[in-house]
Amino acid sequence: MDTTTASAKSQQYQLLLQQVRQFAAQPVDLVSLLANTAALLHHSFGFWWTGFYRVAGDELVLSAFQGPVACTNIPYGKGVCGAAWKERRTIVVPDVEQFPGHIACSSQSRSEIVVPIFSNTNALTQSSTSAITQLHDNAIPQALTQSHNNAITQSLWAVLDIDSEHLSTFDDTDRLYLEQLATILSDAHASLSSPIRDIYLAGGCFWGTQHYLSLLRGVLHAEAGYANGNIPNPTYEQVYTDTTGFAETVHVRYDASQISLSRLLEMFFKTIDPTSLNRQAHDIGTRYRTGIYFTDPDDLPVIRHSLKKLANNYSDPLVVEVIPLTAFYLAEEYHQDYLQKHPDGYCHIPLDLMSEARNFNPPNEN
To answer: Which residues are CB-neighbours of 231 under 8 A, at least 6 positions away?
Structure first.
């Protein structure tokens, strides 16, 4: 690339970064920010495919993008995106056919760049220490072969993936500016993402479910209630008739810096038979159905991934309901913390699981 062309590209990127900063400065939803950023990149430079993959368990899940239909799930360490996640560095690939283990979503993709996006901006501010993969050239400048020292300690929540129909489209100018873009998105992610999260779990009788979940380290509080029915302010007597559509449900507020949603669901699944429809232990009726009700759409890929892993343990299909929360009402006071008030009260969850929850110490997953 000649000096004039490189200068024009730099100016184009500088303008783009200003526009993305304006997007990020507004009180926007994270997915909306990623969607606008993908569209701006895609149409400003005429890339073939531009988009984001977000971390969900041990996979990258397709998020906002521009271009043709793409791979929806990419395992950790697989393909260029998975490798950038695993190695925690930007990867530039001049010829995708020469990249070991390349995942060919389309034969039209010829060259590619993938930039990891960390939860902490320190991981991306030292651009001079970024690594770059140049499969056609072994004489890489020393400054570009060093790894992100700070990135080792930072959590990664997404990657930016850009594909071109032409060989050798991306160079160090692209890398430098796209890492600056990733820094902006990291800042936005930090401001829009609170570690305090909410999820609503239906696991049969809420007496035992509430007590069990409240014991988990990282759970701030759990409260019994009725979710996703069709009348306002239901009473227990009304819900008990199985005519209101409500499920006995526990609202869980948790600190995601201590326990991830995937770990929380993993522990919750131990208390239910996910193949039993409208029944848990001795409790029968639609009010005792199992369900995961979410308020944040970003939780859905994690929920789906967790259920996919769970299904591997069963020959029968899972019947756990997964839908957005449409209504939730607190149960009457005598239902709250029932097993603390009545230690010998009915509970469908075995005592050994209660003990496991009490001793639960989730690992640091960041």
So the answer is: 238, 244
